[in-house]
């Protein structure tokens, strides 16, 4: 139905920047929103940022002013620009999508495999 592939994770020094990309494939659905989540080592997965089909974006307080989510017009690519990175940003970052199949009345959620971001000196 849908596939998400993340890329761009790397080892970066504190204060550095990274740009993560999520490539979407598949069809026969409408998109409610897409977003980025992360899972720090030993912790639960947490929201980073989302962008909705009707326009609004949502950010975790911990990344406001430092991270920016964006997408192309066709929703084939979603990006996360990460600036002023801190060691606590170290995590596996996952791309997420919530869709409604054309033949369904229920939303479905899918995840990419994740990309590792490590912030360390």
Structure write-up:
This protein is an all-beta fold and 121 residues long. Helices cover 0% and strands 58% of the residues. The protein has strands at 2-7, 11-12, 18-26, 29-39, 46-52, 57-59, 67-71, 77-82, 91-101, 107-111, 115-119. The strands form 2 sheets. Strands 2, 4, 5, 6, 9, 10 and 11 form a 7-stranded mixed β-sheet that branches. A hairpin with a 6-residue loop joins strand 4 (29-39) and strand 5. It starts with a strand and ends with a strand.
Summarize the structure.
Helix content is 0%, strand content 58%.
Contiguous uncertain segments of 5+ residues = none
Structural class: mainly beta
Helical content stands at: under 10%
SSE succession: EEEEEEEEEEE
The profile of the biggest β sheet is: 7 strands, mixed
User: From the alpha-carbon coordinates, what is the Rg to the nearest angstrom?
Assistant: 14 Å
Beta content:
over 45%
Strand count: 11
Note the overall shape.
elongated
Separation of the first and last Cα atoms: 41 Å
Average pLDDT works out at 97
Which labels suit this protein?
single chain; four-stranded antiparallel sheet; 121 residues; mainly beta; seven-stranded mixed sheet
What's the arrangement of secondary structure elements?
Elements: E1 2-7, E2 11-12, E3 18-26, E4 29-39, E5 46-52, E6 57-59, E7 67-71, E8 77-82, E9 91-101, E10 107-111, E11 115-119
Parallel strand pairs: 2-11
Antiparallel strand pairs: 1-3, 3-8, 4-5, 4-9, 5-6, 7-8, 9-10, 9-11
């Amino acid at each position: 139905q849908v596939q998400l592939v993340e890329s761009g994770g790397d080892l970066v020094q504190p204060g550095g920047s990274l740009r993560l990309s999520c490539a979407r494939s598949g069809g026969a659905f409408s998109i409610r929103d897409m977003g980025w989540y992360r899972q720090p080592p030993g912790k639960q997965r947490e929201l980073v940022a989302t962008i909705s089909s009707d326009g609004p974006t949502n950010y975790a307080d911990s990344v406001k002013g430092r991270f920016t989510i964006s997408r192309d017009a066709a929703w084939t690519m979603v990006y996360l620009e990460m600036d002023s990175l801190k060691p606590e940003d170290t995590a596996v970052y996952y791309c997420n999508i919530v869709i409604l199949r054309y033949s369904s009345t229920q939303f479905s959620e899918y995840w990419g495999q994740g990309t590792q971001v490590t912030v360390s000196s």
